[in-house]
Amino acid sequence: MEFKKLICKTIVIDQNMINRRIDNVIFNLYKNVPKSMIYRLIRTGKIRINIQKIKPFYKLKKGDIVHIPPINTINKVEKKIILCKTIKKTIISSIMYEDEFLLIINKPAGIAVHGGSGVKFGIIEIFRHIRPKNKYLELVHRLDRETSGTLIIAKKYSSLKKLHEQWINNKIKKKYISIVHGHWPKNQISITQPLLKTFQSNKKRMVVISDKGKFAKTFFLVKKYNTSTTSIEVTPVTGRTHQIRVHSSFLGFPIIFDKRYGNTKLDKILLKKNKNVSLFLHASSIQFKHPENKKDFFISAPLSKTWIDYEKSL
């Protein structure tokens, strides 16, 4: 294993970094350095702010001068992102709204929001690659890889923090559109079932209904009955992992082409119509207060042509 010694570094805190914890900032700067080493450098006063020793939970202020000593770091080869023109064009054309604080896209199905678990890179890494001048880009929330629709990226830490506060206080409203197997009963308008994250023997994550899980509630509204499926609008009250997919499957109406919680036999019948389809779950709209001007903000993401054409065939 090779090591390299990084030189001393001095950072002057600007508007984009205020209110962030010093330990989290250092973690992001030195991703190849063990956290235990960073905590030790802060505790012993090697990492200082304005020449003073600080605690790991110190929140940065504008104008703070952070001094970082030489640090031994593992010399890992950085993964280069190589984008084909088609992917780059798709991502750029997916932008629905942008200002100084936010970037909102209509995420295409099939692209992860971030790298990890066998995925080299996702939406956030792509934007950091094609927007190197943007000093700060972070996901405000997540969507499953196969889910399409509205996705918010913060361009300032202050925006991220304010939106997360809205999320915690249940002030952000999201709606989804989906197509499920069977004819959804009109009187089944909601479900409240706790959800628990589990891991299978193959290390695959599964979410199950369990009394040990976290509270989760979802509302459903029938939009249209098809021959053997139903087009529905979904409003999750909570935002648990795989919530809509698990709740709809639990009620006996799994989302079509859901490889994890769906009905494979019924999916095979529908695949005869078109084999180039995936999970039919789309984050159709989102409503919140803009983190800067505090005005009500609403945006909706149109369905893809593939979705529209396939739904017509059902």
Automatic annotation (TrEMBL):
Known EC number: 5.4.99.-
Reaction equations catalysed: uridine(955/2504/2580) in 23S rRNA = pseudouridine(955/2504/2580) in 23S rRNA; a uridine in RNA = a pseudouridine in RNA
RNA-binding S4 domain location: 20-87
Keywords: Isomerase, RNA-binding, rRNA processing
Entry keyword annotation includes Isomerase: yes
Family indicated by similarity: Belongs to the pseudouridine synthase RluA family.
Function: Responsible for synthesis of pseudouridine from uracil at positions 955, 2504 and 2580 in 23S ribosomal RNA.
Name of the protein described by the UniProt record: Pseudouridine synthase
Species the sequence originates in: Buchnera aphidicola
